[in-house]
Every structure is written in C-alpha cells, then in structure tokens.
Amino acid sequence: MTIKVSVISSSEANLKIFSDAAAVVGDVEFYPHTGSTDMLDNLLITDKPDVLVLDASHGADLKLLHEIEAQLAKYPQVHTIVVSPDQSVEFLALAMHIGVRKVLAAPVDAASFQEALRLARTRMVTAAQLGAAVHGGLVIGLLGVKGGAGNTFLATNLAYALGRQNKRVAVIDLRLAFGDAAIYLGNSSAKTNVVELSQQYVRLDEAMLEAGMAKVSDRVHVLVAAPTPESQADVTPAAMERIIEVARSHYDFVVLDLSNSLDSMVLKAIGMTNALYLVLTLDIPNVRAAKAIGQYLRASGYPADKMQIVVNRYLSGEHFSLQDVEKSTLSRVARTIPNSHEAVADSINQGVPLVELTPRDPVARALKEWAESLAPQSVGQAPQNGNSGPVAALRKFMGFAP
Fold first, then answer.
1. In angstroms, how far apart are the furthest CA atoms of the chain?
2. Which of 267, 304, 327, 332 is the most buried (most CB within 10 A)?
3. Parallel, antiparallel or unpaired: strands 275-280 and 253-258
4. Percent of the chain at pLDDT exceeding 70
5. Which of 136, 142, 117 shows the shortest CA–CA distance to 18?
C-alpha cells in the first residue's frame, strides 16, 4: 500500500533526513515543503496526504498546537506526526486531544521516523481491511442538524428495530454533555461509559467493550455517555477510533448518536461511518443548518454519496417540499418519518421502544421499514455474515469490496 506523506519543515537538512528515511520505508509518495504551518490549509487541499509531518524541531509550544487544531479537525483521517523538543505531559496530552497521532522527539531521528511511518501504514491497512471486512461491522451515524430534531429517538429506535431483524447492534452515545440514549430504550444501567473507556482505549477489546454496556436486549447494547461532562475532553479522536473499530468487529451494526458540535472527536467518528444521516425537520433553521453541515463535511473530504437526509416529523404540504430540501442541501432525502407526537412522547417517557409499545403507529412502521431496508430479512432468521445475503448486498451498495 502506497502512502502519501507531506512534510512541513523550516530546515532543508531535516527535510533530507525525512526524505531518506521515507525511501527506506518504501511505497511512499513524499512531498517536502519548506516553511511553517501557515501553508497547512493549502497543503492539505493540494497534497491530500495520508500522513502529515509537522517539524517543529526549532521550538514548539502549546500555542502551535492551538494554531493547527482547526485544520486537523477538518481532516481527521490524516495521520499527523509532530516533531518537537517539548515532550512534557501537557504538550503530549494536548497533541493527542487535537488529533495528533505521534509526537517524535527533536532532534529528528531517522530510525524513529521510519518506525512512525511503518506504524501509520499498518493502521491504514488495518482500517482498509476493517472497511472491506465481510463480517458485519456497518457503522451508521445519525446527526441532528439542530437541537430538537429527534436524533436520539431515531438512533435508538432504529437500533432496536435492527435488533428485531436478528442483528447484533451497538449504540454509541456521542452526545457527551448529558447524553441519554439508553434511557430511550429503558436501560441506562451500565458498568462504564464512553469517557471511561476512552481513558483506557489502548487496552480496549471486545470483551471489555461489551461488559461495560447497557443491555437493552440480547442483541441491542448501548455504550452510554458519562453522567457529567467534566471529563469529555478525554474522548480523543484516537480513543474514538479504537472504540468504533472494536465495536464494528463485534457487532453487525454500530449506530452512532452524534453531536452536531463537529469537534475533532465527532469528525473522527463521522469519518468512520459507512452511511451518515442528517436528521432535520422542515423549517428554515434546520434546512440552513443541514446545508452548512453538508458543505463543511464535503469540504473536509467526507464522500457526498454516503451522506443522506432524514426528514423527521414530516407532513406533506408544508412550506418546503422534499425537492426543495434536496436542492438546498445537495443531498438525497433517504427517509421521511411521520409526525406522531403522542406515541413518540409515550415511548420516550416510558422508556419502551416504539415498535414494542405501539407497533402499528406510523412512526413505528417507518422505523421497521428503515431497519428492513438496511437488514432485509425475516425476524428469527439466523444472522448472515459472509459474501452473500443482505449484509453483503448492503456492503456492495455502499461501495465495499466483496
């Protein structure tokens, strides 16, 4: 696998060291740049690197990390390496928080740089293999473009409906400030939460993940948000990547209840989805927000064909047509969910999934149809994992190799 490596350094001598080291690693397209981080925005657009190296050997402080945070957040898929003389705990912690994957000590060392490149390649190969794996692991993100769009209700109830399709489903609550996804499904009893697992992500495995989740049913498990938001900074992009990797290796579907904050952690999660649904209601603020979010994600490199619109509380004959929404957002309206306020409110307040509480309700029927479109099989049929069957068909639709 050939990787594209872009390096920014003010030192021609260091660029030569990087270049020679990359040649030893092999299968590297090397793009050297003499200068400073001022050129970072343009470089990320023109080079489209897999690996970005920022050489701050002649002095890096916390100010540098704050300066590059916004750019790294736009490109969470880029494996960023920083070379710095500062190896303090504070510097390393902030670097990890903004999405830097590796901090190498200055002065630059060819052997250490070669090892860092090999590690980056290994992670990319692993990610590609996970993406092409045939044993489940489809990651679906739901993102409410505005507060009150009904995102958590749809995410949790879709997950439960997928469980009724005989699929193992993990829900990950990424609304870190007082997220309550598990409550919608009637079980918030969990041994751990997103923050605590993020603090231990290096040793996270399938058993550890499942043991800490709230068990809604045999098939539907929820990784809950922390009860208070104080430690949410510990949910770094690297930690989120590991949590999702482990979840999709263990479950047929991973449903992400996403915040619209679009910070580096959320962007990392979005970058790992196989499909992203922007949830909105038909009003000007929601449509404007969906348009802005869609533009931002496309500019950040998220594939436009994986991003679709779900219109919640839909009533025909409103001020906007579905065609108006598609024209404004440049995304296809994949689903409409009817307006059934009383039944949905009863489901939320009782903590009972709507497809169980009121199965004939129009919203319940829409959720079941949505789940059946993602996992089209009869209830009670054995899960199908392999090169044939509904999961394989869905993978083909989403562009994955057989």
1. 71
2. 267
3. unpaired
4. 90
5. 117
SS3 65: helix
Q: The whole model's pTM is what?
A: 0.65
Whether pLDDT at 11 is above 60: yes
Mean pLDDT check: name the lowest of 1-5, 18-22, 134-138, 394-398.
Answer: 394-398
Determine if the peptide bond prior to 107 is cis (ω within 30°): yes
CA distance 397 to 402: 11
* CA–CA dist 237, 50 (Å, integer): 16
Instruction: Please report, in angstroms and rounded to a whole number, the separation of the first and last CA atoms in the chain.
Output: 19
Most confident of 6-15, 81-90, 97-106, 174-183: 6-15
Inter-residue contact 88 to 62 (CB < 8 Å):
no
Strand, coil or helix: what is 18? helix
Backbone angles phi and psi of 62, in degrees to 5? -65, -25
Domain definitions of the chain by residue range: 3-123, 135-383
Domain 3-123 - what CATH class?
Answer: alpha beta
- Whether 135-383 and 3-123 are alike in CATH topology: the answer is yes
Give the C-alpha separation, 1 to 177, whole Å: 39
| Least confident residue range of 127-136, 235-244, 255-264, 360-369 | 127-136
Strand-pair partners of 153: none
Give the CATH fold of the 135-383 domain. Answer: Rossmann fold (3.40.50)
What is the spatial order of strands in the sheet that 28-34 belongs to? 28-34, 3-9, 51-55, 79-84, 100-105
Element (H, E) at 220: strand 220-223
